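Justification of computing resources. Each target in the renewal requires a structure prediction run like the one illustrated here; the chain below, 244 residues long, is used simply to show the kind of job we budget for.
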Amino acid sequence: MKVVCVVDSITDIKNKINLLSNRFGSNIVYIVKGNLLELFKTFGYTANAVYQKNLAKVMHMLLLKSAVESIVIYYTSLKLDNKLLNEFIHNIGKENKAVNIMPNYNGFEKMCFSVYNTYVKSLFKANDSLISPKLQFIPIEYATTLLSTHIGNRIFEIEPELSKTIYIEDKEISNSAKPKAKFDKFMLLPIIMALAITLSLIVCLAYFKVNFIFIAVFVCLYMLDFVIAIIYKCKTTFDLRFLK
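Resulting structure tokens:
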């Protein structure tokens, strides 16, 4: 079994790596975020690969360099404790099923993910499983399939009989299991467009006669802006979960 440790946080790094090595052995490869590389080295570890915004590609290429085996993927930004590890290892069992962890999503998040999965399914004919990418066991048969396609596909739903899911109730662990989106300046564009449409509406109301076509045009413009904003948000969520 190989452990792929994605270093996207340095917080309590030595304790987390010790927990991994004590439970899974020393066959650990480290994929380190670029801005953390020099700091990571000061702890006495060596990076096997470095990523910026192309984590899935880097992980895929690194895994192709060695023989296929079962894989544990762990991100250091996930809070790790013995209770979670015990349950995770217990579910791995005979290593014949994928083991995932599922954060506790609130009502608003579930609603947003429902819209997001409509976007995903329309493009890929499959749903995002909504599991956390930060801790996952992949058996050798599934790993072979993923490495013949794309390692990012590990986030898609698979048949229930081929996987096990651990539902996280601890609030702090659940929050750390969710990928965190950074500020995206392009998300300001729909806001700017809405303001421009509103300004145009005010000007038109001041100088032109209002009729049904006039109202319909501006309603359509607002709706188009809203739809574009949703599609872009879905795309950035997909990229964050599958690629970055």
